[in-house]
Amino acid sequence: MADGYILFAKIVEEIRRLVSQQVTGTLFIATNENRSAQVSIEDGKIVYLYFSNTVGTTALERMAQIHAGRYRFQEGPAGLPRVDLPPTETILAALEAAASREGASDRREGGEAPAVAAGLTEPQKSVLVACLVEFIGPIAEILSEDHLRQASDLNTAIDALAGEIPSPDQAAQFRTLVLSKLSG
Description:
The chain has 184 residues and is α+β, with helices and mostly antiparallel strands. The chain contains seven helices and six strands, in the order E-H-E-E-E-E-H-E-H-H-H-H-H. The chain has two domains: 103 residues, no CATH class; 62 residues. It has a six-stranded antiparallel β-sheet with strand order 1-6-2-3-4-5, with helices on both faces. Helix 1 runs antiparallel to helix 3. Pfam families: DUF8082.
């Protein structure tokens, strides 16, 4: 994945690839508008969709708003509830249609989305530190100082702070918690 945000069409291509490989795991997406999305796949079938405080088919409909983002795939069972969804191929077709409408002009220009303004706001920093405290305790305030000072954008900061959490599962939970608090 490039340093900047990539077009949603490229993320949808990755979802299709994961489905075709019949993997189990969750793709976490952070949009360029600081919203979060999740696509959980179980043995190649999409079983859970989340976007900006909505789940299921409502989340699928709203995912059409995504223009660009970053993503991470966490392999293994997500432990999320199954929701009533259309068949995986129908979901993929809907996502591909939305992505082709959103990014048609940008794809002709090379596939990279426009850069988002760099730097972190004080409210973002506060949320990041508060969330990290929940996972590693008060030492989070000290550990986060350098990371937050050096981070050029929100996703870089989230990744750096998640790296301070020893458990990969808890690091994924940290990412989800931060994105949910910042998207609200």
